[in-house]
Write a structure and sequence with these properties.
With 348 residues, this protein is α/β, with parallel strands linked by helices. It has helices at residues 41-48, 97-100, 144-148, 151-164, 181-193, 204-213, 226-233, 251-257, 279-284, 297-308, 325-333; strands at 2-5, 16-19, 29-38, 64-72, 84-87, 90-91, 111-112, 127-131, 135-137, 172-175, 196-201, 217-220, 239-244, 258-266, 288-291, 316-321, 340-344. It folds into two domains: 2-150 and 314-344, Alpha-Beta Complex (Quinone Oxidoreductase, Chain A, domain 1); 154-291, NAD(P)-binding Rossmann-like Domain (Rossmann fold). Bound molecules: NADPH dihydro-nicotinamide-adenine-dinucleotide phosphate.
């Protein structure tokens, strides 16, 4: 089958579109014909390499996919050939205490499919092999391309805002990267809960995108002061929740933007891993700092109810042919994406 493969870390030139063996399934696994893969920032981290993390080579990236089941193992009961499915990308043992208490991301065997698995085991390919427990039904009203852009982002945002930060009606939520994959989903979750998403973006075009999605306000970080704008919008109180994933470059502003007793929740550090905190603010303002990573299958299924009902929409802005994965990664790396990108193996 065709796949996007890299054998060493580097720029997008390391991505090769080539033939690799089709995956062989075990008794509890299913083989899916991938109709579309979703692009995530972890595709870029994997290609570039991350300190302290082994990326298994040769590597096929891609942690989100939607497709059709074409083969099932002898023990598989919950899916059958012909089913249209989406991938839940958290691979874990499913038997330990963490897994059986809905905290699979704490399982010692936890791996993000297409990021920490391998060799050759991700969504950027014609076929994918997954445990049956990692497949969920695709809603019939959305396309494969749309479905492929949902799971990782949706469950991450759900866990950050709903489970960790306990979002409530009326909350002001400062959302970095408001037009990006996580940020655009965070705006929708704010709307669902009656909270007020304040999107921070890098251009007026992205500000319009965020406002059209329902952001309460949008701040262009390149022409406006985020701190001043948050003060103005919240009548000097500060944000109830800061939605962080941008890291070093934004950390100080994130803390400054928090209201007394407010909650900062983070899942990433796109601009750098070291954030400086004046510890006096932490105690004086009695802030809550939460880390968050991925989400459980239960959280994904909870969030998917709102996709089924149409209250949360997939935000696919462009579908590239699988062979053009490097173009999609470049667009993402340059910070130009609004919403999400998909890769399609059978692209016309
Ligand atoms: P996107 O590329 O879709 O969006 C990232 C956004 O970040 C961009 O739109 C850009 O917005 C903004 N940004 C980038 N650099 C800066 C900066 N220096 N200052 C302010 N804003 C900046 O990526 P995703 O939303 O998919 O992912 C974001 C991060 O979250 C990644 O690092 C990813 O690895 C991580 N992540 C972690 C997960 C986890 O479970 N731990 C799960 C999913 C993602 P603009 O220029 O418009 O301001």
């Amino acid at each position: 089958m065709k796949a996007i493969v890299f054998e060493e870390h580097g720029d997008v030139g390391k991505l090769q579109y080539k033939d690799v063996p089709e995956p062989k399934i075990g008794p509890n696994e299913a083989l899916i014909k991938i109709k579309a893969a979703g692009c995530n920032y972890n595709d870029i981290w994997a290609r570039k390499g991350l300190p302290g993390m082994e990326i298994i080579m040769p590597h096929v990236s891609g942690s989100d996919a939607a497709g059709e089941v074409v083969e099932v193992g002898s023990e598989v009961k919950s899916v059958k050939v012909g089913d249209e499915v989406m991938v839940h990308p958290g691979i874990s043992c499913r038997t330990c205490e963490a897994c059986t208490s809905g905290q699979e991301f704490f399982c010692r065997q936890y791996r993000i499919w297409g990021f920490q698995t391998g060799p050759l085991d991700g969504a950027d390919a014609e076929y994918g092999r997954l445990p049956e427990v990692n497949l969920i039904p695709k809603p019939s009203q959305i396309s494969f391309e749309e479905a492929a852009t949902l799971p990782l982002t949706l469950m991450t945002v759900w866990r950050m805002l709903v489970t960790r930060a306990r979002i409530q009606a009326g909350d002001y939520v400062l959302i970095w990267g408001g037009a990006g994959g996580l940020g655009s989903m965070a705006i929708q979750v704010c709307n669902l809960f009656g909270a007020r998403g304040i999107a921070v973006v890098g251009s007026d075009k992205k500000a319009k995108y965020a406002k059209d999605l329902g952001a309460f306000e949008a701040i262009n970080r390149n022409s406006q002061s985020v701190r001043d704008e948050v003060k103005r919008i919240t009548n000097r109180a500060g944000a109830d929740i800061v939605f962080e994933h941008t890291g070093e470059a934004t950390w100080k502003d994130s803390i400054a933007a928090l209201k007394r007793g407010g909650t900062l929740v983070t899942c990433g550090a796109t601009s750098g891993f070291i954030g400086q905190t004046d510890i006096r603010f932490l105690w004086n303002k009695q802030m809550n700092f939460y880390g968050s990573h991925m989400g459980s299958k239960g959280e994904l299924l909870q969030a998917m109810k709102f996709v089924h009902s149409g209250q949360i929409k997939p935000l696919m802005s462009e579908a590239f042919a699988l062979k053009d994965a490097s173009k999609a990664q470049k667009v993402m790396e340059d910070g130009e994406v609004m919403g999400k990108l998909a890769l399609v193996p059978d692209h016309a």
